[in-house]
Fold this sequence. Notes:
- By secondary structure, the chain is an alpha/beta fold.
- The protein has one domain (4-207): Vaccinia Virus protein VP39 (Rossmann fold).
- The protein is built from seven helices and nine strands.
- The protein has helices at 4-20, 28-36, 68-78, 95-101, 116-126, 140-146, 163-167; strands at residues 57-59, 63-65, 85-91, 106-111, 132-135, 149-158, 169-181, 186-195, 198-207.
- The protein has a seven-stranded mixed beta sheet with strand order 5-4-3-6-7-8-9.
- It is globular.
Amino acid sequence: MLDSEDLFKKAKENMIYNQLIPNGIDADWILNAMSSVNRDDFLPEKLKAKAYSDEHLIYQGDMAMFSPYLCSLILSQINLNKSDFVLCSNVDNAYMPSLIAKYAMSVVCLCKKNTVPQRCDQILIDNEVDNVAMFGINKKSKIKQQCKFNVVFVDGIVKKIDPELKQMLDNNGVLVAMLYVPRTERLFVLKGIKQETGFKFTKVKELRLNT
């Protein structure tokens, strides 16, 4: 009989070979990141069994982990380089920052709640992620004054892009977010590139949360 560790390992292999690769996710760095970070570590006990299933998981009211395919699709739009300095905003668990950190130089997280960093510290250690710094939302103004980023990723789903995040991007930097438009009830993966004349946004993919 397989123990839980073996079951999760088998489920992770199924995620790679039956969900990601058949749907066009073939970049080595994305597959390696998805293989090396344990989704189950970032979920409450009652949802661990669904960690590698092809579905979005919502828990504790407003916390979410997107399906493996959607996570990998978002990663494919970030176009990471190993020298990139990345800001992850609106973070409520460290799963996506951990994936990004497997390829980027370093990742700074602005969390939705000031309690998130302490909750995630041990999970990062367990997944051998040592280039992520997590801060409560109260540190936003200080980080804005001190840092410019190559990439900004907005975790979760937002109804608008915080203008301050655009200011924290370096020239030619990339911003990726999941944008929900209430008037039309449409959901998009949105990608923006900061240019001298402003931002150029592209709607990468339209999605429905129940698929």
